[in-house]
Write a structure and sequence with these properties.
mainly alpha, 7 helices, about 60% helix, globular
């Protein structure tokens, strides 16, 4: 049963990814750029290497994406106030419209997905996902999995 659930989760992610990529409002930003921008917005000052690990991406590939977003004026590397030794990633004020559009598109995709599902079941689903995330992170010796313990779903 659990392995079938995994296939369903992967298929849902694939469908959402395709729907996001072909959405007409996201013509000027790729899915991976939107993902980087949103994650940088959720964790201001995140180090590039941490974000690469979180996204399971090679740091050089992420560096190119960060460069693209910086050229677009949406993201910048700067030293966070709490650590002057390294650069952190910060979204710029110019990114606010892009982040709003990304949020709107995500909402447009999820509203039909949640159709006819009781809000209590949605909350149970969220709690189950958090528990799966925690279990995977706590039972792994791989550093990038263990660092993924910061839940993205917590309010």
């Amino acid at each position: 049963m659990q392995e079938k659930s995994g296939f369903v989760m992967v298929d849902i992610l694939r469908m959402l990814s395709i729907a996001f990529q072909v959405h007409e409002k996201i013509a000027d930003i790729s899915l991976v750029q939107a993902d980087v921008l949103k994650r940088a917005d959720m964790t201001p000052g995140i180090r590039q290497v941490e974000l690469a690990e979180q996204m399971r991406m090679q740091p050089t590939k992420l560096g190119r994406i960060v460069d693209q977003l910086a050229e677009m004026g949406l993201l910048e590397r700067r030293k966070p106030t709490n650590d002057q030794r390294v650069n952190g990633l910060f979204v710029t004020s110019a990114a606010s419209e892009n982040l709003k559009i990304i949020g709107d598109v995500v909402d447009e995709l999820w509203v039909p997905a949640w159709k006819d599902i009781d809000p209590q079941h949605v909350e149970i689903f969220r709690q189950v996902l958090l528990k799966i995330q925690h279990n995977l992170a706590s039972h792994s010796d791989h550093p990038s999995i263990r660092r993924s313990t910061k839940p993205l779903l917590e309010d």
